[in-house]
Task: structure prediction
Amino acid sequence: MSGICDGRVVIVTGAGRGLGRAYAELFAREGARVVVNDLGTSGDGRGAESRVADEVAASLREAGGQAIASSDDVTTSDGAGRLIGAALDAWGRLDVLVNNAGFVRDRMFVSATEEEWDAVLRVHLRGHFCPAQRAVAHWRDRAKAGDKPDARIINTTSGAGLFGSVGQSAYSTAKAGIIGLTLVQAAELGRYGVTANAIAPAARTRMTEAVFADMMKRPDEGFDRMAPENVAPLVVWLGSAESRAVTGRVFEAEGGLITLGEGHKRGARRDKGARWEPSELGPVVSELVEATATPTKAYGA
Result:
């Protein structure tokens, strides 16, 4: 197999099902050597089955691709280290890390438990932090040795992280945090030959089918807008050498639609040149609100 990612070594976390599997399959078809990572948990993060990653890696090899499986826990430093090590042991290099693993435990904010909150933030935030830190340590060492990488981090945010989503306070918080992480990675890692971007995919997965059943329903005929395979081309392009000039960006992808986010910029402003009195601020804030675009409503609002 050869294509836009010919010869590149790619790790995809959460690659056992849904979006992650679609990414892994297209990377392999485009010539990449793929580490299929999946702990094999349920949709809410419980249990573990190593066969999930094994089966996907085997299917990629049967289709003519190069792939190995990993069932390491990406929320731990040791697990992330083994994951990065698997790529290096198999192929001697790493070029792309796609942080995709995650789950949801939906609950209205007032009813959310600490355990649910911690579990969701752990898988999304630590699950992005631990593999990326281990990968970046490798890329930094390569850069310092004079072999500057052409490397990619592709993070996964969500419309919930961009706009909020009713019943998903922990998930929305985690996905918003991933945007901040992406911006910092882009600012810090360019010196080592590493770009960082985030995608907010809209597609049919175990998570979205449960929450947005009507929206995610398969059509009887025609274009299946919510098929996870529709998001994969953007992810694979971002993992290719062609994307080296693009970093610190947030993309939304749904069906055939790709949107580049513009959320992180300043709007209207008023500067008094001195300290404001509380009693002065009512009309000032009203003017600022009037002069600034209305925020997109949270999903479900």
